[in-house]
Specification:
The structure is a homodimer of 258-residue chains.
Chain A lengths: L1 E5 L8 H14 L4 E5 L5 H5 L11 H6 L5 H7 L1 E2 L5 E4 L8 H5 L8 H7 L7 E5 L6 H9 L2 E7 L2 H20 L5 E7 L6 H13 L14 H8 L11 H19 L1
Parallel strand pairs in A: 1-5, 1-6, 2-4, 2-5, 6-7
Antiparallel strand pairs in A: 3-4
Bound molecules: adenosine-5'-triphosphate (2 copies) and magnesium ion (2 copies).
């Protein structure tokens, strides 16, 4: 089972869009995919059509139980209207975990322990993160085999990436396995100079960790969230979806190498 | 002196772009404008060409002094390369204020007290906020005469606005004057159905507090941050700048009425 976390401390860079796009493509390949929404804003949960205020069996409830068992974890997994695609939903209550759990011993490994119980039920787990460094992001990073960092190709976003890479280096110190990360340039607009020069700077600064292509700006992604379906399920000839297919091929080829 | 705060707990919605666009237009009208960057990510500070790691006299330093005097406040005000436009810069250290100040009595009014000292030196103060509800946002809201809330015209952003409006209602309870807010629809894309239906929903939900027009999607805003100048200073015939001019006229006409 591969666990991919999509994270960046900067908001609005395309984290949720990256998770739902890759998950849809993996499910269409026949892979069994579990989505995890760790963002109290619950964008992924509402994107998939769940009512955030009334959804049962959320990730928050799993964190309340000190004694985990298989039945509890299975209870939190909700089926979506798409084959091969399940979700453990988020709720607003997740925002309180930082205060409650922050100092407790071993709180960084709860998610890793949850996922170990379903190791054989899924091929991929994709985790969507909130745009802040807190308990949920730490849990997600500790549980993942690879971190995808979407970065807008613009000048202001590059400073934010420095912060995220520093966070990964700090996490690395307390994780036994290597924490591999891939920078994914998003919202690339070939018409503006800003996109081009930002991309060049990213490629020069992170030569070994950046994907060799880009996700272009594509307004069809907006419509996708209204239809409550992954973009590849209903948008034909969409350059954004083609780009995510290329990204997925790159990641699957990389991961199989190891 | 009018104090306008631009805030939304959702990231990447155009807060910094709104601050710099309106500030540029006001300075070109000959108004004396002070910008305040309260975001530890310091986007506004780096947008204006300051080096975030070495800038002197930041807002953080002002918060360190329990005894404020006029000299200290003036020392923190930096001139920019544009007439009528000054800045009190941000730094990463602002992120530590939540832990340090969080529980202290009266910590919500520090910014209001700072601004009272420069009441006669500026016509407008524009405050850029980080995308989180913390000490800095509370300070900014308590010090402002009007709050501008940029909201992307898309489905996922509407839930985020509900949260922001609830925050304003809570703040209202501890502020003597009325806290007026204006919802500003941004990144409107007339080609996608998602933008249209989101805008309709916003207009139905916030009829008395929404601006009657939109800021369109305009990729020239990306280039503007590379030139380290407000968009209206160098971009000709830009529909984004025209839209901010219309917004400014709407706000100035409103504010004068009161
Ligand atoms: N390649 C793209 N081109 C155009 N729009 C995009 C693209 N990717 C994402 N978007 C749009 O940008 C907005 C933000 O995307 P998204 O919600 O995925 O970001 P996020 O990083 O998850 O945000 P948050 O930090 O709030 O969780 C959405 O309206 C989405 O439709
Ligand atoms: N109307 C618009 N059309 C197209 N792009 C825009 C528009 N407004 C802002 N942008 C771009 O969107 C990105 C995010 O904008 P901005 O930094 O102003 O948002 P923010 O809300 O301040 O983000 P943060 O929450 O990280 O502080 C920037 O690349 C900016 O250039
Ligand atoms: Mg998201
Ligand atoms: Mg900003």
């Amino acid at each position: 089972m591969k666990v991919w976390t999509v994270a960046n401390q900067k908001g609005g860079v395309g984290k949720t869009t990256t998770v739902i796009s890759l998950a849809g493509l993996l499910a269409q390949q026949g892979k069994r995919v579990l989505l995890l929404d760790t963002d109290p804003h619950a964008s992924l949960t509402s994107y998939l059509g769940f009512d955030v205020d009334s959804v049962q069996g959320t990730l928050y409830e799993l964190y309340q139980n000190t004694q985990l068992d298989d039945a509890m974890v299975t209870h939190s997994i909700q089926a979506t209207s798409f084959d091969n695609l399940d979700l453990i939903p988020a709720s607003m209550a997740l925002a309180t975990l930082d205060k409650v759990l922050g100092q407790r011993e071993g709180m960084g490994l709860i998610l890793k322990r949850i996922l170990a119980r379903i190791e054989h039920q899924y091929d991929y787990v994709l985790i969507d993160c909130p745009p802040v460094l807190g308990v949920m992001m730490v849990n997600a990073l500790a549980a993942s085999s690879r971190v995808l960092v979407p970065v807008q190709t613009e000048f202001l976003a590059i400073k934010g990436l420095e912060r995220m890479v520093k966070t990964l280096a700090i996490m690395q110190r307390s994780c036994p396995e290597p924490l591999r990360y891939t920078v994914v340039p998003t919202m690339y607009d070939k018409r503006t100079r800003a996109s081009l020069s930002a991309l060049k700077e990213l490629q020069e600064t992170y030569p070994k960790n950046i994907w060799n292509s880009v996700i272009p700006i594509d307004t069809k992604f907006r419509d996708a969230s209204l239809r409550h379906a992954p973009p590849s399920y209903h948008i034909k000839n969409c350059r954004g979806v083609f780009a995510y297919q290329t990204l997925l091929a790159h990641l699957q080829q990389m991961t199989d190498e190891q």
